[in-house]
């Protein structure tokens, strides 16, 4: 009988760099795992590996259900895993956070997994769970978490959100990317001018951009796309460089080469604090989510 495998599940293959870094750390912790990803090519490129076993997600929307119905290959790829999975690990991320749609998708995935792999242990690790979810999102999240064997969370707010569902109090652990970056050493490449990294989840307006340029006139700028959707938030007339992250090594080296970082996304701030230090990391604006607010409070980060 073949050795049972671990299945790693998360928001992988969507182009979100924070999620791909979570996967990178998970592959070190669970070597030889099968990866669920929306884009095998992107995931393989980011992890810098061509030996990965990857499978698609179960259907959760109209388009993916149509693909499930019409594509025997799609169905068989997942059906062939039946009886071969003993652990299902969600290794981090804010899957049940911010948006009702996200809660629906991940609740659906857990339902499928309980059906296809009934004997497998399901573990949610270092999760972010929002307290301010809508009523429908709360019900979806509660039902999904009740089907999970073990849960750990990344902050006190998430711990309170889980216990509010009348579930056992989960253990608080470090975000996996935070823990990973803390253990590494970095070599900075020399530059003629100082470098400031920028990132935003909403557009940087001209007033704010002018202030950044004025106060950091001796700096060059790079706008880091932590997610493909970040491109629309680059300020009009941006005089710096747009950086598309393609590998985990490029991600860490980009921060190692910088002298300051001003941004908003959660894993942008994590990378900046762990590689550059808290004194060289600033929050661009008021936190856009509970996870960012909690992290900034824990690190004592100030707003630009």
Give your account of this protein's structure.
There is one protein chain. The protein has 304 residues and is an alpha/beta fold. The protein contains twelve helices and 14 strands. The strands form two sheets. Strands 1, 2, 3, 4, 5, 6, 7 and 8 form an eight-stranded parallel beta sheet that branches. Helix 1 links the parallel strand 1 (5-8) and strand 2. The radius of gyration is 20 Å and the shape is globular. It starts with a strand and ends with a strand. The model has no long low-confidence stretch (mean pLDDT 94).
Short structural description:
The chain is 40% helix and 20% strand. The protein has 12 helices and 14 strands.
Descriptors for this entry?
globular; about 20% strand; alpha/beta; about 300 residues; 12 helices; about 40% helix; 8-stranded parallel sheet; 14 strands
Number of helices: 12
What gross morphology would you assign? globular
Strand-residue fraction? 15-25%
Give a quick account of the main beta sheet: strands, pairing sense, barrel closure. 8 strands, parallel
Order of helices and strands: EHEHEHHEEHEHEHEHEHEEHEHEHE
* Straight-line N-to-C gap: 58 Å
Number of strands: 14
Overall radius of gyration: 20 Å
The chain-level mean pLDDT equals 94
Helicity range = 25-40%
Topology:
Elements: E1 5-8, H1 17-29, E2 34-36, H2 40-47, E3 53-55, H3 62-70, H4 72-79, E4 85-90, E5 93-96, H5 100-116, E6 121-129, H6 135-146, E7 150-153, H7 156-163, E8 171-172, H8 176-182, E9 194-198, H9 206-215, E10 219-225, E11 241-244, H10 248-256, E12 260-263, H11 266-275, E13 281-283, H12 290-299, E14 302-303
Parallel strand pairs: 1-2, 1-4, 2-3, 4-6, 5-6, 6-7, 7-8, 9-10, 9-12, 10-11, 12-13, 13-14
Helix pairs in contact: 5-6, 8-11, 11-12
